[in-house]
Structures are given as C-alpha cells and as structure tokens.
Target: Cysteine-rich with EGF-like domain protein 2
Amino acid sequence: MRRTVLSVLLLGSAAVVGADVPSGVPTNVKKERQRAEKLPPCKACTVLVNSFREGMKRTERSKHEGGDAAWEEERLGSYKTSELRLIEIQERLCQDVGRGEDQCHQLAEDYESRIEEWWKQHQNDHPDLHRWLCVDEAQVCCPDGFFGPTCEPCPSCFGNGKCKGNGTRKGNGKCSCDEGYDGENCDRCGPEHYEAFRDSEKLLCAKCHKACAAGGCTGAGPNACRVCRTGWV
Model:
C-alpha cells in the first residue's frame, strides 16, 4: 500500500515538474542562438561600446591595490585612466551582452588597439567613445540625425517621425511617421486623426472620438465625426 501511495506521489510530482517545462526550443539553445546572432555593423559597434561603458561604471570607484597608495598614484598614475583599469574592463567585456555576444567578442579583438588608443590618448578631447570609435574610426554609424554612407542630414519629419537609417550608414532617409501622422514629411494627420495644433514648425494630431467610423473626423468630440459608428447618432 505504501509503495502504491509513493508511486502515485512520485508520478504526480513528475507530472507537475513536466508541466513547468515549456514546449519548443530549450532555453540553452535559445541562448546559444542569441549569442550567435549577427547584428548590423552599427548595432554591433554600439553594443560593444555600451558594454565598455558598463565596465567603466563598474570600475569607477576602484583603486590600485597595494599598501602605499601615494607611491602607486605617483608611479602608476591615476587609476581612472590607468592600464590596470582598462584591463579590468576588458576582462568582462561583452559578458553582459545577450544578442550578438559572439560578434561582440570578435569586435573587441578587432578594435582592441583602437580602444586602447582612445583610452590612453583621446579620453579628454573625445569623451564620447561611440562617436570616436563607431562614427569616426570604424565608420559604421552616423551621428544622431544623420544617415547613409556619407552621413547626410535627416529630414525633420516635422517632429512626428524618424528618418530611415537615422544614426547608421544605411537607410534612404525617408520619414517613417509616428502613429497618427502621414505624408512624405509627416506633415499631415493620418486616418482617424484630426489636426489639434499647427504652426510653422510643429503639427499635433489627435485621435478621433470613439463614436467616429472609418471616415474620420474634422475635430474633437462625437459631433465632429464624418460618419458615426453603429449605435451612435
């Protein structure tokens, strides 16, 4: 009898454990796929720089280890810009990355000498590592507000969208409008939205009242509907 009860309990426990295991691709396989994922050049460089910045945050309060702090500061220099700190950052570089981790490690090797050059020579005059490495040196990104192989200026998109390729060496620069906006330059309201405000530089569109059907509206409230939904008059 005890064996029967024990068997039932064990089978029940196994069923519960089995129910917690998700179907489909195992978690470790998903992680491996994420690690091996190939990111676009600008994104990959940005991921590397972000990981380096996290390393800088992690080590910003550390100091040289040793008994004579004054001697170390004199002989080894400020820890803030020391080679020791750089090594400590590089030791854990890309370990905090999920998607594209393998690519990040490869880029860290490819850009190692450039990162060391920035660390030793350009931190003061070029404090933005992303701009120095990804935009100016590797030339795989553009500054924000620019796009394409030669980093041409993005259109304003009237403040209601983003240009395709913004910040990268890709894209055609055309506006991708936010929800509720339309037009080549996002300078008019989209379907089922109305113009709430406009001046020479800004356009604000608001969603039509829920009483309005697909025809949209001319302004705020149910009385501005071009066509009412069923149940509204």
Summary: The helical segments are 2-20, 27-36, 41-59, 69-76, 83-91, 101-110, 112-122, 129-137. The longest strand covers residues 193-198.
